[in-house]
Design goal:
With about 150 residues, this protein is of the alpha+beta class. The chain has a single domain (about 15-95, about 105-135), classed as 2-Layer Sandwich (Pantoate--beta-alanine Ligase, Chain: A,domain 2). The protein contains two helices and four strands. It has helices at about 5-10, 15-60; strands spanning about 70-80, 80-90, 110-120, 125-135. It has a four-stranded antiparallel β-sheet, with helices on one face. β1 and β2 (about 80-90) form a beta hairpin. It starts with 5 loop residues before the first helix and ends in a 15-residue tail after the last strand.
Length: about 150
């Protein structure tokens, strides 16, 4: 009978090699899960901010369409847990004295609209502010003071 040498009988992996392979696999899976979790959080944040921007655009678009814009503050709540506050104030354009429009001959009244949209994510409150200018034709029922630009 021929006996096989000790070297030729060893086939397969040692226990240490198997444990090391499992440890490397566990670390790799853990890293992949952390990356996936972070990506899902970022996707959720981006979706919330996109929704907020769309809501803000809608609110700013409809402001002053049914009735004239009036200086002041309004607010309310929307579906999805969003709340809003709109501040409307007159805006005076900075014109140099040589401008023909500096004598109060503006064909439009400018209003600054600041919209703050808020919502909650978990225990954190998120706020985002949108600002724009809106041009309106002067109110014919309001007399224009000389040099006042109608504001």
């Amino acid at each position: 009978m021929i006996r096989a040498s000790a070297k030729s009988r060893q086939r397969g992996f040692t226990l240490i090699e198997v444990v090391m392979a499992l440890a490397i696999f566990a670390v790799a899976v853990g890293l992949c899960l952390q990356i996936a979790t972070g990506a899902m959080k970022q996707t959720r944040t981006a979706a919330d901010q996109t929704q907020a921007a769309l809501l803000a655009q809608s609110l700013l678009d409809i402001a002053g369409t049914g009735e004239r814009l009036r200086p002041g503050r309004t607010g309310g709540r929307l579906d999805g847990g969003y709340s809003w506050e709109l501040d409307v104030s007159p805006y005076e354009a900075e014109l140099d004295s040589a401008s023909p429009l500096s004598n109060g001959l503006l064909a439009v009244q400018l209003y600054r609209m600041d919209l703050v949209l808020s919502w909650e994510v978990g225990e954190q409150r998120r706020d985002v502010t949108f600002s724009t200018l809106r041009a309106m034709t002067p109110d014919p029922n309001v007399p224009v003071a000389p040099g006042g630009g109608g504001l």
